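Hi R.,

Here's the chain you asked about this morning:
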Amino acid sequence: MQPDSSASQKRAKLQAGIDTLGIACTTEQLDLLLAYLNMLERWNKAYNLTAIRDPMQMINLHLLDSLALQPHVADKKNLIDIGTGPGLPGIPLAIMNPDKHFTLLDSAGKKTRFLFQVRTELGLSNVLEVNKRAEAFVPEERYDTVLSRAFSSLPDMLKTCQHLVTDSGCFIAMKGRLPESELSEIPKDYKVSDLCRLDIPDVDGERHLITITHSSL
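And here is the predicted structure, written out as tokens:
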């Protein structure tokens, strides 16, 4: 069991980062984010869910990085997070948006088992974890948004996941440095409808958010 000072430091660091991002967060949501962080730290020791071991680094590199998407999903309702891993960005966004539904897709069984535990322990009724590859998953209804944080190149994402999104939907991909070559290889059926740089508190290096829609929109 970690000392109270460690828990207080995590809470203060996460709250400061959320404030810097300008995101509204209730005490209950902050508690859930910290509970998720503690579960990720605990499970990671046994199941190697992420290369980041330090929970203080997880706050910036995982939680705040995911929460930076919050303004970009404001008008979305039904989202799928492909290659979600341990639930990033899906779990933090689901905590912040109880009115939206998130399907978390990953082909690694140990990761979806972790997500089942997270969903159960945190009571996230707006989350569904699915243990399948993206190309093999056939949803009952298509999504308005496909999220990708560390899945594949932009052209591969579009090819693999085109059956998951509605005709009026969009793909939102998180990238590090601007992937110029990937952008140039996007099929003509699609267009970049938004491209912006993300500023993550206490994270060095570039982060970009790319939104792609059908060219007809």
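One quick note: Residues 27-47 form the longest helix (21 residues).

Cheers,
M.
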